[in-house]
Amino acid sequence: MTLKYITFSISICLISWIVGMIVNAALRKTEFYGKLSNISLIKSRKLNKFIGLGAFKWIVKNTFFRFFNPKLQLQSKATTEELIELKQKMTIAEISHFIGFIFVMIFAMIKIIRAEYLFSLWIILVNILMNLYPSLLQQENKGRIDRFLKILSKKEAKRIA
């Protein structure tokens, strides 16, 4: 029975990635998207560390997961324009995963309503690993890019002055 729960959970999360991309593409043309792209679920680096985001980041960087979205990697020393473009791509990935997370949580809630608690637990656990943590990781990386862009702009301002 548990194998059935795990395979269903993984399958629905994979489907949620497609749903997330489709809904995200539709949302990008709205004013709401600007608000959505600036949401930061966890602002504290300590909390990110506490929930294991660092370990998750290591797994993404050092396993086959690094091949999932090669557009989110820099190949060399980045220019300001490249960093801004990378941040935009990260925002798309972040919001797609977050939409996918909400989509899968609907299935988990249905299982809770039907009193299928173990099934719901597996859905939630897999969803956290496949949708929530990637979204949180993108948020953390966007913050790092913002800090780096701020440093670059200060250096540019000193060079001009």
TrEMBL record:
One Pfam family recorded for the sequence: CrtO
Name recorded for this polypeptide: Glycosyl-4,4'-diaponeurosporenoate acyltransferase
Major localization listed first in the record, in broad terms: membrane
Compartment(s) of residence: Cell membrane
Lineage: Bacteria, Pseudomonadati, Bacteroidota, Flavobacteriia, Flavobacteriales
Annotated GO CC locations: plasma membrane
Family: Belongs to the acyltransferase CrtO family.
TM stretches of this protein: 6-27, 95-113, 119-137
InterPro entries: CrtO (IPR044021)
Membrane topology, record value: Single-pass membrane protein
Pathway the protein takes part in: Carotenoid biosynthesis; staphyloxanthin biosynthesis; staphyloxanthin from farnesyl diphosphate: step 5/5
Keyword Membrane set for record: yes
Molecular-function annotations in GO: acyltransferase activity
Function per UniProt: Catalyzes the acylation of glycosyl-4,4'-diaponeurosporenoate, i.e. the esterification of glucose at the C6'' position with the carboxyl group of the C(15) fatty acid 12-methyltetradecanoic acid, to yield staphyloxanthin. This is the last step in the biosynthesis of this orange pigment, present in most staphylococci strains.
Keyword Plastid: no
Organism: Zunongwangia mangrovi
Keywords: Acyltransferase, Cell membrane, Membrane, Signal, Transferase, Transmembrane, Transmembrane helix
